[in-house]
């Protein structure tokens, strides 16, 4: 889905497109943790409502994040999968709340977190009694500046080898530019990951957040069909 829910129409059209392809999870932000206070912060509670109603219309599941502990209960109540954003990975208020919530948690790796710290973040949720934790690699900060972050596929291999938890890859935030997203997605698919988080927007250039990295509907459609043979080759099905 899109980076942020921007309007009912934007969410609806995007969900309609994704649903037609067979995508079952609608992921977008209502409470956006932005680096600058002057950037779009999300539609908040209204965005959450739009997301829920849109997903229900198409029989899809909602994945959305909580920015801080003040909206965690509201997000837990509304979403089907609770996203813990990269910057929230160290927020113990959130980790404790989602540890008790009984819903799956999509935990993103902080861009400065070692694999050990990432796993320990997940352990906070697991030790709270919630066994449904998905780990999501979304790029770490390196010396490189030409791409937004550096996608750590070694880390993905590490998680697959050492942990018995599903692992997702988010090539959109790692790359930061739409042109690189299809190849990175295919690379991740070839590793047999359990899920992919890809940003899609009706008019990426006009997006209120993460404009440079979101795919158009057409770009997403062709990426999606190119994934099918790769998924089959690694014994996976797209669903
Ligand atoms: C997001 O997934 O929309 C997001 C803000 O990503 P991250 O928390 O990985 O920066
Ligand atoms: Mn985004």
Quick structural gist:
By secondary structure, the chain is an alpha/beta fold. 41% of the residues lie in helices and 11% in strands.
Architecture overview:
The protein is of the alpha/beta class and 239 residues long. It has 9 helices and 7 strands; from the N terminus they run H-E-H-E-H-E-H-E-H-E-H-E-H-H-E-H. It has helices spanning 8-21, 45-58, 72-78, 92-99, 115-127, 153-162, 171-175, 181-190, 217-233; strands at residues 25-27, 61-65, 81-84, 105-108, 133-137, 167-169, 195-196. The protein has a 7-stranded parallel beta sheet with strand order 1-2-3-4-5-6-7. Strand 4, helix 5 and strand 5 form a beta-alpha-beta unit. Helix 1 runs parallel beside helix 2 (45-58) and helix 4 crosses helix 5 (115-127). The longest helix has 17 residues, at 217-233. The protein is globular and about 40 Å long. The two termini are 15 Å apart. Manganese (II) ion binds next to loops.
Draw up the topology in text.
Layout: H1 8-21, E1 25-27, H2 45-58, E2 61-65, H3 72-78, E3 81-84, H4 92-99, E4 105-108, H5 115-127, E5 133-137, H6 153-162, E6 167-169, H7 171-175, H8 181-190, E7 195-196, H9 217-233
Parallel strand pairs: 1-2, 2-3, 3-4, 4-5, 5-6, 6-7
Helix pairs in contact: 1-2, 4-5, 8-9
Phosphoenolpyruvate binds at residues 3, 29, 85-87, 108, 138, 173.
